[in-house]
């Protein structure tokens, strides 16, 4: 029994470290801090969504509003950071080959219905899957905010892993494509001219009949793969895509252009050499010799 328990524990641990979620966001290179359940609608685990008939295909399980919304303007660069169990660890198991995409929808839709507009897509190029490129670049994929009308939006970065996708989940629940996605809350504060065009409904567009979701990477030419969801929308800007992470800076620019540390983030302590000014209304409070935080 003890041996069986140990084997089960090791198996569950290896699964956890094979999977991923979005952990944080950078805006124009400015680190917005850990976003889990803060500005990211985070699921309770990093397990994939496999049932394509589920509402979870839109924003993962546990889709609900979270306390914070990040301000961006048209032309800003948003960088999404994936990670296994926390920031700074692995990204996703290297066997999990597939595409990386980003969609956007209005927050008021809560992600339901034909509202999702694809603004970025990378699959198999130059002999490499997008997921392999993502691992090389520490889980970072960047998009440029389109010239959207002011308002609240959900941005949805997604990894489609095809390592079990030769068989559909509804045929064999042990197999099936694995989707890793989260919805991140943003407020576009610039006065753009673009309204979101009609988009896709994941419950209708992501189906077991789609060859982008049932695809055998082991005996099919990778160059023949076409991701689901249709082409990238014309509203998309020129996106940096998967690449090296931006310069890592704690805090964010305030309205005056100075640097400031957001709520609950570190602002001081032994050996600390980062930003010490908190965002407006917050104070850098001493916790102990090694740590002070903005509260």
From TrEMBL:
Q: State the domain notes.
A: Has a modular structure: an endo-beta-1,4-glucanase catalytic module at the N-terminus, a linker rich in serines and threonines, and a C-terminal carbohydrate-binding module (CBM).
* Primary role: Lytic polysaccharide monooxygenase (LMPO) that depolymerizes crystalline and amorphous polysaccharides via the oxidation of scissile alpha- or beta-(1-4)-glycosidic bonds, yielding C1 and/or C4 oxidation products. Catalysis by LPMOs requires the reduction of the active-site copper from Cu(II) to Cu(I) by a reducing agent and H(2)O(2) or O(2) as a cosubstrate.
According to UniProt, the name of this protein is AA9 family lytic polysaccharide monooxygenase
Record keywords: Secreted included? yes
Keyword annotations from UniProtKB, A to Z: Carbohydrate metabolism, Cellulose degradation, Copper, Disulfide bond, Metal-binding, Monooxygenase, Oxidoreductase, Polysaccharide degradation, Secreted, Signal
- Segment Disordered: which positions? 233-262
Please name the GO terms that the record assigns under molecular function: cellulase activity; cellulose binding; metal ion binding; monooxygenase activity
GO biological process, alphabetically ordered:
cellulose catabolic process
CBM1 domain span: 259-295
Q: Which SUPFAM superfamilies does the UniProt entry name for this protein?
A: Cellulose-binding domain (SSF57180)
Which Gene Ontology cellular component terms are annotated? extracellular region
Catalyzes what? Answer: [(1->4)-beta-D-glucosyl]n+m + reduced acceptor + O2 = 4-dehydro-beta-D-glucosyl-[(1->4)-beta-D-glucosyl]n-1 + [(1->4)-beta-D-glucosyl]m + acceptor + H2O
Predominant location: secreted
Q: What class of enzyme is it?
A: oxidoreductase
Q: Which InterPro entries match?
A: AA9 (IPR049892), AA9_LPMO (IPR005103), CBD (IPR000254), CBD_sf (IPR035971)
Span of the secretion signal? Answer: 1-18
What family does the Swiss-Prot or TrEMBL record give for this protein? Belongs to the polysaccharide monooxygenase AA9 family.
- Cell compartments where the protein resides: Secreted
Q: Show the SMART domains listed in the entry.
A: fCBD
The EC number(s) attached to this protein equal 1.14.99.56
